[in-house]
């Protein structure tokens, strides 16, 4: 997906974009979590772009990181 083209809503034209990892914070079940997700940025204006399939991919990334975090928390409870 690196350096492909799609429509940028900031530029209002089809441009190349680059995928980068960004950090976001989300609250799940009243607890704050930090996640690293993939975002697409326009190579022309630098604006964030909504690329087809990227939201689904990010949900998968968040789910995997959330599950990993909870497994580590459970292990800490057992092994201190």
From TrEMBL:
<protein>
    <recommendedName>
        <fullName>YgiT-type zinc finger protein</fullName>
    </recommendedName>
</protein>
């Amino acid at each position: 997906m690196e350096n492909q083209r799609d429509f940028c809503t900031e530029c209002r034209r089809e441009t190349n974009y680059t995928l980068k990892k960004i950090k976001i914070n989300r609250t799940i079940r009243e607890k704050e979590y930090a996640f690293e997700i993939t975002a697409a940025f326009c190579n022309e204006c630098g604006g964030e772009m909504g690329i087809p399939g990227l939201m689904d991919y990010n949900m998968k990334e968040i789910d995997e990181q959330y599950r990993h975090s909870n497994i580590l928390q459970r292990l800490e409870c057992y092994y201190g």
